[in-house]
Amino acid sequence: MQDDQVPPVDANRFQAAQNLDPSISQRHAEAELRVLEADADALELKNGEARQRSHIRIVAVLMALAVIVGMTFVLYHTTHAVFLGYIDLSTSSAAVALVVGPISSITLVVLAFIVAAFRRFEEKDNDRMMSVIQPASRYISG
User: Fold this and answer.
1) Residue 56 has what pLDDT?
2) Rg (CA), the chain
3) Which DSSP category does 87 fall into?
4) How far apart are the first and last CA of the chain?
């Protein structure tokens, strides 16, 4: 017999085997039912994960917007307090801190939320953040 030829299947012999032992048919049906239930459960878990991921992304975007709005208000308030004379800025570092603080928090927190929600953090992200934060903190502290 060649490899490309399929041997004939005797349907009568298969039916006769099932007629001899009806439990084979029952067990086969039960096994198929278990497989179908497992596939349905896996699909439900996959859909639940997608829903959860989209929910987390929406929450991250809303939190980022809240940080932007809050820190913009702080920046607006401190700028007007400085220009109207409520706050006495005897040193230039205080003036810089009042402006740089809200802007840096807007940038860092929003980037962290967005990266975490849409790309997921990895171990190398912590190293990258530290490599950026350390020189910046040394520069700011003088």
Assistant:
1) 83
2) 33
3) S
4) 86
